[in-house]
Design goal:
Length: 493
């Protein structure tokens, strides 16, 4: 294999290019997941469907700690020397395998104690456990591909996995199957194909240039003790992060009731779909910042480019999200979730949550800077203080407003969520020590936040003032410039 072939396969990660692939694949995956859920709800008994979903979530949450935060370090450090990524992937696998043994044993012991009818659903529970483990195993090679500048291949594995799963669901549905274990096996098959594709692509890209005996991507990788300590903040965060987006829903369930929680959940579903955009941007930015962590000038330049891209995406995401929810939510969900009979409209609640999406998007540069920086524990501190703030503030605001009416309590939940996103933005700036970046762009950032707030308020109440958000399209040219062809060409060299 010639040098030119290697150059074409390994390249510097670039936020604009890579985030485009990741956002696209995640949106496709969400759409396919929705289609899959439609087939599942039609084919399975309600009880079987409920057990399937609960088992998947339970095992995914329980086994998440096996990740150990190590794939995040591959994404962060891998771009420094792509020849060491392949060896690093298998080093991560060895550590994860050792860690998995006690958790698997614990799952075997505790599952019969928690699930009363475990014998009846034993095959389903085993399959769901394997699904969770296979998904975790796919994170390392996918992170390696991203660090090697091949986010498009990582994106391909995600779409491939979801496509196989949905096609399998479709076949079972038209065959008239109502076996929940059969549908779970199809999901496992999709996950295995996604993992296999990630490993094959990683082998194709990384093996030809691999230094099999060297997995030291940075000082964090000098020995296993140091590596695990460096990854610990990300491992801890993985255990806490799933609760951040559920706090308001839990409080609403306690203060208003399960119907209120269900309504809030529907509004959140659309919001969570939109959150794939900042998540994909962070995933693409992490290896970029990791590569330049020791070069302050380059690091700051990458942050500025990412801020430009976020500002450019802001108006597109705001208005497209609002339009999609206005048009599709009434079609996709029963009338009671839209007409206000449960105290509020899921569409209006989403518009309040949409402002939180805008703030989360703007937090992308500083949030990722914490992950890529030299003090990873600051990232854990960020998540911890955000969870504490969300819990205390959300409880006080929701409880206070719920005394007035259920509708007021529901809107309070959405407002609390958006204010928490603002708190996340401020804390990420403070902990990443990036106030200079903010000060240099303060007028753009303040105007973006202010106009987004007015536009979201207008969308919530159905007022013409929502069109003020059109002024945000001013930022699109600089967003385009942040991913200019010149930069992309330079990144390939």
């Amino acid at each position: 294999m010639g040098e030119s072939d290697l150059v074409s396969k390994t390249r510097r990660p670039v936020m604009g290019r890579d985030s485009g692939w990741l956002i696209g694949s995640d949106l496709i995956a969400i759409f396919l997941a929705l289609v899959g859920q439609i087939f599942l709800t039609k084919a399975l008994l309600t009880e079987d469907y409920g057990i399937y979903i609960v088992a998947l979530d339970a095992f995914a949450t329980f086994f998440l700690i096996i990740d150990l935060g190590l794939p995040t370090l591959i994404a962060r450090d891998g771009a420094n020397d792509t020849s060491k990524i392949w060896a690093s992937i298998f080093r991560v696998y060895k550590l994860q395998l050792i860690c998995s043994i006690p958790f698997i044993i614990l799952a075997i012991i505790t599952t019969p104690l928690i699930v009363e009818e475990w014998k009846e659903f034993l095959d389903l529970l085993v399959i769901c456990g394997f699904i969770a483990l296979v998904h975790i195993a796919s994170y390392a090679p996918r992170s390696g591909l991203r660090a090697a500048g091949q986010a498009k291949l990582e994106a391909g594995t995600k779409v491939m996995e979801r496509t196989v799963t949905v096609m399998g669901y479709l076949i079972l549905y038209y065959q008239g199957s109502s076996s929940v274990s059969s549908f779970a096996l199809v999901f496992l098959l999709g996950a295995l194909i996604g993992l296999a594709a990630a490993l094959v692509f990683s082998y194709w890209i990384l093996k030809p240039i691999s230094n099999n005996k060297n997995s030291i991507l940075s000082d964090s990788w000098l020995d296993n003790k140091t590596l695990l300590l460096q990854a610990l903040p990300f491992a801890v965060t993985l255990g806490v992060l799933p609760y951040v987006i559920r706090i308001e829903k839990f409080i609403i369930a306690g203060e208003i009731g399960v119907e209120g929680a269900a309504l809030f959940h529907v509004a959140q579903l659309a919001w969570l779909a939109g959150m794939v955009v900042p998540q994909a941007l962070r995933a693409a930015l992490l290896p970029v910042l990791g590569e330049s962590r020791n070069d302050s000038e380059k690091f700051q330049k990458s942050l500025e480019n990412s801020l430009d891209l976020c500002l450019g995406i802001l108006p597109v995401g705001l208005f497209s999200g609002a339009a999609i929810v206005y048009l599709l939510l009434p079609i996709a969900f029963p009338e009671q979730y839209i007409d206000g009979s449960l105290g509020a409209s899921a569409v209006e609640l989403f518009m309040v949550l949409l402002f939180g999406w805008c703030l989360t998007l703007l937090a992308t540069p500083t949030y990722t800077a914490l992950q890529a920086g030299k003090k990873p524990w600051n990232f854990t501190v960020l998540i911890a203080v955000v969870v504490i703030f969300a819990t205390i503030f959300g409880y006080i605001l929701i409880r206070w407003q719920a005394m007035e009416s259920d509708g007021s309590g529901l809107y309070a939940g959405a407002i609390a969520s958006s204010i928490t996103s603002g708190f996340l933005l401020l804390m990420s700036i403070q902990l990443s020590s990036n106030w200079e970046l903010i000060k240099s762009r303060k007028y753009q950032i303040i105007s973006a936040i202010f106009i987004s707030a007015i536009a979201c308020y207008g969308l919530t109440i159905g007022s013409w003032i929502a069109i003020s958000g059109l002024t945000l399209f001013y930022f699109i040219p600089q967003g385009i410039r942040s991913i200019s062809p010149t930069d992309l060409i330079h990144s390939e060299s």
